[in-house]
Amino acid sequence: MTLTNRQLLLQSRPKGLLAPGDLQISESPVPELKEGQALAKVKYLSIDPTMRVWMVADTYLPIVPIGEVMRAIGFAEIVESRHPDYKKGDRVSGLTGLQDYVIIDKSAKTFFQKLPKVPFVSDTVFLGALGTNGLTAFFGMEIAAPKKGDTLVVSAAAGATGSIAGQIGKIHGCRVVGIAGTDEKCAWITKDLGFDGAVNYKHPDWKEKLAAATPNGIDIDFENVGGEIMQEVVNRMNLHGRVVVCGFISGYTKADPNMVSLGTVIVKRLHIQGFLILDYASRFVEAATQLGQWKMFGKLKDRETIVEGLEKAPEAINMLFTGGNIGKLVVKV
Ligand SMILES: NC(=O)c1ccc[n+]([C@@H]2O[C@H](COP(=O)([O-])OP(=O)(O)OC[C@H]3O[C@@H](n4cnc5c(N)ncnc54)[C@H](OP(=O)(O)O)[C@@H]3O)[C@@H](O)[C@H]2O)c1
Question: What are the residues whose beta carbons fall under 8 Å from the beta carbon of 81, sequence distance 6 or more?
Fold first, then answer.
């Protein structure tokens, strides 16, 4: 029986949020497997802010060409194999793209990681807390070099990366304050995740609330947002504070991102470091093992927002920029 593959192709480069038609669904038969290939059924797709960047710019990865399947990380299961490294039933994560099926080809350079079946652990955790976001939080917090008693501020704090970064801060004995866009998110990070404080940046007095929540200044900024939020946090940094630049989501949908004025960096002798999770690939197993242990012992909690249906992926991408997700945003294919 010939299988049909639905694919979301990039048809135009979005301006602002994705508009209908920027990604369009197309159907084609799955080709016969050649020697050295495996066919994987995509089960879950990781919805990441960087996808919006891949649509419009050459950055650390090349821009997605018009007419091609939109790049995305996914969780998939091998359904047929003529590839020496995979057998039917193997579970993998990697760059599956926004589609139902992906062919893993021995001769291509695409990277897929085999995943274990862990009792009582959902498959989607390998896209979030034990996947890219958990690893990003882990290595970002390693750069932050947290010390007991430091005040750590995390922006996009109820998101996939921020929620884990804040909890790692708590494990290291920091006083952790999160910035998020709804009262529900603020309640989740303080009541369930143990953050010491939370500030809803959509309230008009959020700057005063941030000052009240950080009476001794800020030692570490785990920066996910950029723009006005980062500016306010940087203004409150203590001498020799560390700013870990993980992402600038407030700028990804804008042609002219609101940049931060960095005069304070000199006066406060701040240490600013950007990083990309790709650079830490050789240490993923070490970090995932540590994250898994923390999760097992209840020190790390995670939450997911699951959107059903491949065709809903464009709406899901927009949810990242309107704050529609709590924790990891995933599309169930
Ligand atoms: N450096 C790396 O290797 C790396 C790897 C992964 C992710 N990242 C970065 O980490 C950040 C978080 O990514 P994620 O995947 O964990 O997404 P996420 O935090 O789960 O989702 C994005 C969240 O950002 C907040 N947000 C969106 N636009 C905003 C704005 N204009 N101002 C303030 N908050 C805004 C929204 O929450 P609110 O309701 O709070 O607004 C939204 O829920 C992104 O900047 C991403 O690019 C970097």
Answer: 33, 37, 38, 39, 87, 88, 90
Report the alpha-carbon distance of residue 18 to residue 47 in Å, rounded.
13
pLDDT tens profile 60-82: 999 999 999 999 999 999 999 99
pLDDT, tens digit, 9 for 90 and up, residues 266-320: 989 999 999 999 999 999 999 999 999 999 999 999 999 999 999 999 999 999 9
Is 176 in contact with 169 (CB distance < 8 Å)?
Answer: yes
Ligand 1, pocket-test mutation among 206, 249, 302, 318, most atoms within 8 A of CB: 249
Instruction: Provide the pairing of β-strand 271-274 with 237-245.
Output: parallel
Q: Which pair of structure tokens corresponds to residue 314?
A: 């464009």
> What is the rounded distance in angstroms from the CA atom of residue 314 to the CA atom of residue 310?
9
Protein residues with CB under 6 Å of any ligand 1 atom:
48-50, 132-133, 136, 156, 158-162, 180-182, 185, 224-225, 229, 246-250, 275-277, 320-321, 323, 325, 329
Helices 227-235 and 206-213, interaxial angle, to 10°?
40
Distance from the first to the final alpha carbon of the chain: 21
| Residue 49: both structure tokens together | 């802010």
Tens of pLDDT, residues 17-36: 999 999 999 999 999 999 99
Q: Give the DSSP letter string of 73-85.
A: EEEEEEEEE-STT
Distance 225 CA to ligand 1 centre (A): 6
- Amino acid at the residue 197: G
Query: From CA 160, how far away is CA 303, in angstroms rounded?
Result: 8
The whole-model pTM stands at 0.97
The answer to whether 246 touches 140, Cβ cutoff 8 Å, is yes
Q: Say how far apart CA 230 and CA 219 lie, in whole Å.
A: 14
Please state, in angstroms and rounded to a whole number, the distance separating the CA atoms of residues 245 and 191: 26
Average pLDDT over residues 107-131: 88
